Description:
By secondary structure, this protein is an alpha+beta fold.
Amino acid sequence: MSWDISLKQKEMLDVEVADIGNYTYNVSKMYVEAMGQSLSAFNGVNAGESTLLLRQCVEEMISNPEKYKAMNPPNGWGNYEGALAYVQKLLHECEKNPNSTIEVS
């Protein structure tokens, strides 16, 4: 199972402005620890309003790498480095496209 995240902007039709890609749900424990919620909670949320929490998540994960590396899934699907890169990409695109809506499927 994985998240597949994109940012959409409402015009006449929904227009995808960024494809974040997908990443395994096996690292959700890291995100819950770093920001108190899973990435699934961002579905339907304004990108600009999400940046503060996403930035806190990135900063927390960077500040405590060993803590999060210890949460690497035992099945080998996903890891700290990939989880951090994924949330950093999401943050970057939310900052670039603050009027978009996050879509998580």
